[in-house]
Request: fold
Amino acid sequence: MRLSTVILPIDRWHEGGRDAWARAEELGFHTAYTYDHLSWRSFRDRTWFGALPTLTAAATTTSRLRLGTLVTSPNFRHPVTLAKELISLDDISGGRITLGIGAGGSGFDATALGQEAWTPKERADRFGEFVPLLDRLLTEDAVTQHGTHYSAVEARNIPGCVQRPRLPFAVAATGPRGLRLAARHGQAWVTTGDPKLYESGTPEQSVEALREQSEKLAAACEETGRDASGLDRILLTGFTPDRNTPLESVDAFVDFAGRHAELGFTEIAVHAPIPDSDFDTDPAVYERIATEALAQLGGRPGGFTP
Reply:
């Protein structure tokens, strides 16, 4: 199991932004992700920077830490321009980029470009075109493809990614169409759990919901002829009924992570502390979890090793 972190792009680079990414590497996190939004929820009227420029700066500040998005979506991205930026970022980082990618939602990004918010079916339709086209753009020197929503005409992407055949996709999905995309194109699957349980569900119900999601992923892999064991499974924490309780102590995190490791999750991502937000956790406990939790989990039956 890997332990990763999420650093929201809320600090000016020379006023704490750079230090957050450097510290994530020092603490030994496997990957440091950031959200790819134009703004997000309670941060709408607060400082918020772009994901890809932030990751580019982080790539020049770190040398071992993997970097990525959780998640990029079609809400304001186009596969052709995104592919060029990702190839550049993969080159600058020396091949340390993971693209977390999802269908997007109905938040601020959905209408920021002046369009009407897409229905769930429209989001799924677009996602179904977006991912395969992006896959081609990142693996082929020149691509021409005409789709209903996204097209490319002699789009050149030379020399391609440092990582071969391309940088890995971590596909966020819970529905059948998205899970099939994860099975076909993903190197990892991402979930935040069942959002219907966030307000009134229990941790036990959440575990069962995640078990069901994992079973549906395995079925999608079988349908596409893929071995499900070859697909990493990432849990982005903070959105299950547990909320931030797993970050209250090292023991609490070990218990939480161990229960989810038994479901087959291979990576858990925790948010870096942010005062006066939903992620207002104790920085000292967060750092202890980063440096101590994996060693404890290594001895748990069914748990993971560092």
DSSP finds eight helices and ten strands in the chain.
